[in-house]
Structures are given as C-alpha cells and as structure tokens.
Please model this.
Amino acid sequence: MMLDIATAYNKYGFLGNEFLTWIWYLIETDQDITTLASSKDPVIFEIGNSISLENNLGDKSKEKITIKGDQAGLEEGGTALKKGAWVTDMNLICRMGEEEYKFSIKGESFNITGLKTPTIDISSSEDEIEGLIVEKTFLIMKVIKVIDTLFLKFIEKRISDDWNASDLKGIRDWIQS
Model:
C-alpha cells in the first residue's frame, strides 16, 4: 500500500532535520566526508553564514533559533541542541578538490537554494553557449550527487541496528561536549 504523500511527509519529515544535524556533527568532529560521499576528490564541508534550529516544546509551540553572519559563533546553536533542537536549515560551503560550492539546504524539503558553483569561463563566443550550459549543469549535478550520497549513507546508518549504540551515541556525546 502506498502512503499518501501528506501522510509520508508528516511521518518522515523529521529525517531531513536529523540529516542536517548529522552533517553538522560530521563537520565538527572532523569525520571523513570524502569516504562517506564516495568521492574521488577530497570533500570538505564547512558551515556557511547561517544555520537555523528548531525545538518542539510540546503543547504545539516551537522555539526557533537562527544564527546569521560570516563571523557568527555557533555556541547558541550548541545550547539549542542540548535543549533538544534539530537543525532545520543550514548554509554550507562544500569544497571538492579545487572547486568551491556554496548553498543552503532545508531539512523538511531538501530544497537547495542559492547554489553558487565554481566560476566557469564565459568569455567564449555565442557558439559555445551550449558547452557552458553543459559545464554548469555538470557542476550542479556534482554537488547534488554528494548530498544525495551522504543522505543515502545517513539513511543506511539511521535504519541500522547499531544506530543507537554508535552514531546516535556519538552525536549525543558531541552535543554534550
């Protein structure tokens, strides 16, 4: 039986926020993202200039914390995690080899917004427009593939029998440190 889309969204909507929190955990604990992303090039993530967290306080109220700014500290985010919040939206910088990508991703929908790919040389003639479009599409698909692969690895870990004993324990230890 197929789940109604709204039912599935409500039932599994938390997974995206858990995924983004897991990404933050990987970044902060210097995990090997390159291996997880099954990439030939080294993959390094950094938190960009914003991160949002949300804590469901029960009784249908929510606490939302947003940290913005290039020099903003993430201490407030750590405090929110200790209170039970999850990352709902984050800006990331992804470096793959010499290439740098910047984008924001929402946990509930996996919408990627504001994607900035490495600069491509656009000084070519109009005849080469098709090639530029193909190159830009390749760069976009490259970063989306990394996110998709990481999400697949997260889901594999999340549904494994040792999630609570290994990964979740590691995340909880990181939050408390």
User: Anything to note?
Assistant: The chain has a mean pLDDT of 90. The beta strands are 43-56, 62-68, 86-96, 99-106, 112-116. The longest helix spans residues 129-158. The CA atoms of residues 53 and 87 lie 4 Å apart.
